[in-house]
Every structure is written in structure tokens, then in C-alpha cells.
Predict the structure of Polyamine aminopropyltransferase.
Amino acid sequence: MDLWFTEHHSDNARFSMKVKEHIFSENSEFQKINILDTYEFGRVLVLDGFLMTTERDEFIYHDMITHVGMAVNPSIKKVLVIGGGDGGTVRELTRYSTIQEIHMVEIDEVVVDASKEYLGFTADRLSDERVTLYIEDGIRFVKESKEIYDLIIVDSTDPIGPGEGLFTTEFYNDCSQILGDNGILINQNESPYYSDTREQMIRATSRLKEVFPIVEVFQSHIPTYPSGHWIFGFASKSLHPIKDLKIEEWESFGLKTKYYNTALHQGAFALPTYVREMLK
Ligand code: SAM
């Protein structure tokens, strides 16, 4: 009998993929973790029934969550990643020889261990000597940290369960305290299409605006996320994502990226009218 994985994208819409093999399953202290091998999307990581990462389309998410900030400030040296247990964001960051320190704070060690074991395509750079992994709650880490970062990437689950506190004004305020004057915060900011994620996107964006003087959102097409239309937030005390984009400097890194490029960077901030209106 065929085995299918199905995610509920709304009360009335579902997204399914045919499963080759169920590779890993564990209930951690925080969430239910599954790794499947699928015909269309390769290996996939599922947390509490929601797709986090797939072998085929993870490059889109990880390019956009990493390179947009790096191209606005190519001098970034010290980075904090909150969440990101599959390792894909850290993998992209380690490609910059100019980055000196990467701190990753992931609440769930089981996600990290399972990703190292079964998702080598994203987790293969967690052993880079510039990476320090903290297994703890990112909310507490940011509140108590005395460090100053150039870039904070909030690579979280949705605002339910352990990820809920990563979408609050209080958390964004705490992030602002540990960001330098040219600091940038990038977050995965949900989707405008279905009603649940739409409300989450609107709320998170307006909370970012309560804290940061510059807040813009940018979009990308991620086939396995609800509706395929995904939004990221860009927040900074001083840098604008388009006016301060350093095209030549970023291109001089010579990084080969599969999705990101500096023309797309500029286009990604041009939003459909219905999205612009909901964020007014
Ligand atoms: N690409 C993904 C997406 O948007 O669907 C996100 C992937 S990553 C696996 C998300 C990680 O955030 C999970 O491993 C989860 O354990 C972690 N996480 C959730 N809440 C957290 C918290 N409060 N502190 C640190 N990590 C957290």
C-alpha cells in the first residue's frame, strides 16, 4: 500500500507527498520529530506534523534567510542563529570566510542530532570551528546575553509550541539590545495566503515595527510551505535592505548560490498589492 505524508495547510486544504521510507521518529521534550524519505522532495524533516526542511527546496529558504542580510552588510562578523536545528542556515553562513563567530541556539538537541545523522545535506557544517552550539531556549538566551551581534537570524518553527515566544515584541526588544548599530535581524515571517499564517505574518511584522525603525518584508517561492508563498522579515536600526544593498561587495565574495542573486534581492521586496495592503 502507498504511504503518503499529508500536512494540513488550512482547514480545507492539504498538501501530500508520497513516502519511500519512514527513517526516524521520536517525541522529544518539545515536539514530535519525524524524518521521511519521499519520492518528490527527497529527505524531509517534520516537526509536530509541519514540514520544516526538504532536500529539494531547502536551498530557497536557506539562501533567502542568510544572503539578504549578508549582502546589505558584507562586513558582518558575528552572527546569532535562533532555532535552525537542521543546520541549513549555519551551512550558508560558513561559506563566508569573513564571518568569525556563529552562535546557534536551538532548544531541541534531538533535532540537531537527528539532522546530523540523517540530513547531512543541511547539517554538514555544524562542526565548523567558528560555530558554537547552545542547546537552550532562544528567548532566555537573548534576554541574558551580553554579546553584541552584527546579524540575528530567527530560523524558528511557527508561533505555536516552543517557537511562540520568538514572535513577541519583548523578544524583538531583547534582540535589539544585543544588535550593534548596523545590526540586522532576519526572521522567517510566515505567509500571507491562508488565514492562520496571514494573521501570524501581520502580527509579527507590526511587532517588529514597534521595535525597529527600518522594517521591510521580502518574499520567496517555497514549494513545500503552505501556499508556496513565504515571507521573511528584515529589521535594522540603520540599514535599509535596498538603499544599502552592496551589490559589488557581495558579488566579490564569488559565492555560487542556486536561488539568491542581487537582482532577485531587489525584486523580493516588491510585494503583491494584496500583501502590501494587509501590512499597511
Ligand atoms: N525552516 C523551518 C521552517 O520555517 O519551517 C525552520 C526550521 S528549524 C528546524 C526550526 C527550529 O526552531 C526547530 O528545530 C525548533 O526546535 C527550534 N525552536 C523552536 N522554538 C525555539 C526556541 N524558543 N529557542 C530555540 N529554538 C527553538
